[in-house]
Write a structure and sequence with these properties.
With 662 residues, the chain is mainly β. It has a single domain (21-661), classed as TonB-dependent receptor, beta-barrel domain (Maltoporin, Chain A, Beta Barrel), CATH 2.40.170.20. The protein is built from six helices and 40 strands. It has a 22-stranded antiparallel β-barrel. Strands 4-9-10-7-8 form a five-stranded mixed beta sheet. The chain starts with 20 loop residues before the first strand and ends with a strand.
Length: 662
């Protein structure tokens, strides 16, 4: 398993993104679970797309009682969610997990949210993205760099938000629940003359689950204090002449979990402020040609206070504890143009993009000498480039890509794509994509897929310095992955859908620490199966289930990756009681979790965690909705495997919601 340590020292005409052109001959597939946009940047039938796709729409999100993006992802085969010792929640894909989930590309209406350039990933800021404004989430498992470039390594997650037509009014909602959690949301969607406007404001405040740790890294016991405050705002403005503006602002502040050195403390505080603004235009040249253009700017600011060790540790000289303050600013600016050509039996998507990335204003204060850890009497400023943990840095890249969707017969689609990215710091990289989707008959679809992807080294991996444990390496190459997949979908039994997916991935040039320096070394393979079933019952009720077997292995040591469950499963029953009430119950199975070779503890045993949500619509008043959810229904004691101790998961908790649309 890979580990990195942060340095202290269409429904809407063009659904979600005007870059997403449509295939007019597939209008019949315009239902929530039968089409996908993100796989090829055009709307196509899931049966025909050469990708392993899961769609979670707003109806399912609402009924299952999800509150954040991570709540949605827990139901997806091949994906897992776990804690870390600081403020970052980790997303694993097919057994591949890193601290910052930088191998997963998260998009908001087609716009990348991976704006933390120092560490990579988007889960540290957007894991708790509010669900109230989500229209659907499209999850593509497997490489997607052939169209999306860096970070689309193991998975792509595209959050598609509601447009003016989806809301058509004003919706206000409030939630209250366990751990003093309070959430307020305002969603607006209107059409004014030639403009469509959709806006959302969400505020969340929670004390979080206070986990008890009997014996931390220095022998202390106590509770964590993972407080969380988040403000998220989103805006989409479209004119009928093709111009659009979209923007998002997110401000998050998290309190201490288990501590950067696994020493409990009450002073850790992580603040992240992120925003982006994108201006674009869609120009329909004629019935066969569409030209999309966009320019964008992203900002990410981190401001962290770390209590590495509490008062009196690691020596009595640290009367106030071992403290550090770190911060930095990331900026991204770019331009992209996309040409979509649609003919009778083929579609070609081609694009050019250019982006600049900047790491600015790193600050570092500590009450110890960074190079040795020797104590100082008080916090001192080490922000000068000669003593800072990282220097300001710049990166530029340009990319060109093209993909062909070709239907030689009505029942067969071939997909061929390639992308070339060129970075000024490590050079160029090609990423191809090949696929065939064959509708064998009216009940069976067979897919064969191959794809490659890359992950660019982060600024921390390249330029960390003045750290006795972690030193950057400017000569790093990107990590690469090659993935083969075979998928079979069957619906021969009435009202029953079944699918089976086999995957095999090889990851090369893994970036890890050798001694004290980041280095490209080693190869890892992960293989397994993903199986899904959905049984449609009467009047909108259904049963859904999935199972994942995954085996991530280090090819050099021949050892299975640590802290990973080989077997995971999910089952849910959605029961539509009547026109007012709906009950959704589910259970998530996590098998026994692996340990590292050096960890002699008994592995974490398997667990089953169940949730239940009762939803009531129009009970006392039209357009009023009430919801009550119970999470971890049976108060199962379960843990995320880690060293030196395992992280307890939350016990039974509750959430009540009231919303009104007018």
């Amino acid at each position: 398993m890979f580990r990195k340590i942060v340095w202290l020292s269409v429904p809407v005409t063009m659904l979600a993104n005007p870059f997403n052109a449509t295939l007019e001959d597939e209008v019949s597939w315009l239902k929530d679970e039968t089409f996908v946009i993100s796989a090829s940047k055009v709307q196509e039938s899931i049966k025909k797309t050469s990708a392993s796709v899961t769609i979670i729409d707003e109806d399912m999100i609402d009924k299952m009682g999800a509150n954040t993006l991570l709540d949605v992802l827990r139901v997806v085969p091949g994906l897992g969610v776990s804690q870390s010792n600081v403020y970052v929640d980790k997303i694993s894909v097919r057994g591949i997990e890193t601290w910052f989930s930088e191998k997963v590309l998260i998009l908001l209406d087609g716009h990348s949210l991976n704006s933390d350039l120092l560490n990579g990933g988007a889960s540290n800021t957007y894991a708790n993205f509010p669900v109230e404004q989500i229209k659907r989430v499209e999850i593509i498992r497997g490489p997607a760099s052939a169209l999306y470039g860096e970070n689309a390594f193991t998975a792509l997650i595209n959050i598609i938000t509601k447009e003016a037509q989806d809301v058509n009014g004003v919706q206000i909602s409030t939630k209250v629940g366990s751990y003093n959690t309070a959430i307020a949301n305002l969603l607006v969607g209107k059409t004014y003359e030639n403009f469509d406007i959709a806006a959302n404001i969400n505020y969340r405040d929670s004390d979080g689950y206070s986990a008890y740790v009997a014996n931390d890294a220095i022998g202390n016991s106590g509770h964590t204090s993972p407080t969380s405050k988040r403000l998220n705002t989103n805006l989409s403005l479209k004119h009928n002449n093709g111009f659009y503006l979209k923007a998002n602002y997110n401000n998050t502040e998290d309190g201490p979990r288990y501590g950067i050195a696994h020493a409990l403390n009450n002073e850790d505080k992580a603040k992240r402020e992120a925003y982006f603004i994108e201006l674009g235009h869609q120009y329909k040249i004629n019935d066969n040609y569409t030209l999309d253009s966009r320019v964008y700017h992203d900002s990410f600011i981190a401001d962290n206070r770390w209590e590495i060790y509490p008062e009196g540790f690691p020596t009595g000289a640290y009367t106030d504890g071992m403290l550090a303050i770190s911060g930095y600013t990331n900026k991204k600016s770019g331009i992209e143009t996309l040409l979509t050509v649609k003919k009778e039996n083929y579609t070609v998507v081609s694009g050019l993009s250019y982006e600049t990335q900047r790491l600015k204003d790193p600050i570092y204060k500590a009450n110890y000498i960074p190079s040795s850890g020797a104590p100082l009497g008080a916090l001192q400023d080490f922000s000068d480039p000669s003593t800072n943990f990282v220097s300001e840095a710049n990166r530029k890249f340009w990319a060109a890509y093209s993909e062909l969707l070709y239907d030689p017969r009505e029942d067969l689609r071939l997909t061929v794509g390639i992308r070339y990215d060129h970075y000024n710091d490590f050079g160029g990289v090609f990423n191809p994509r090949l696929g065939a989707a064959w509708e064998v008959n009216e009940h069976n679809t067979l897919k064969l897929m191959y794809g490659e992807a890359f992950r660019a080294p982060t600024f921390a991996e390249l330029y960390n310095k003045n750290n006795p444990a972690l030193v950057g390496n400017p000569d790093l190459n990107p990590e690469t992955v090659q993935t083969f997949e075979m998928s079979l979908h069957n619906n021969s039994i009435e009202n029953l859908e079944a699918s089976l997916n086999l995957f095999h991935s090889t990851i090369d040039d893994i970036i890890s620490v050798l001694g004290t320096t980041y280095t490209n070394r080693g190869t890892m393979t992960t293989r397994g199966i993903e199986a899904e079933l959905k049984q449609h019952l009467h009047r909108g009720s259904y049963i859904t289930a999935n199972y994942t077997y995954q085996q991530p292995k280090n090819d050099d040591t021949r050892k299975i990756a640590e802290n990973i469950s080989r077997h995971e499963g999910y089952v849910a029953l959605n029961y539509r009681i009547n026109t007012v009430f709906n009950l959704y119950t589910d259970a998530k199975y996590i098998g026994k979790q692996t340990r590292s070779t050096a960890d002699t503890r008994v592995p974490v045993e398997s667990s089953i965690t169940s949730n239940a949500t009762l939803l009531a619509k129009d009970l006392f008043l039209k357009d009023v909705q009430m919801k009550f959810s119970i999470y971890n229904l049976f108060d199962e004691k379960s843990y995320d495997s880690n060293a030196p101790y395992d992280y307890p998961q939350a016990g039974r908790s509750y959430m009540a919601e009231l919303s009104y649309k007018f």
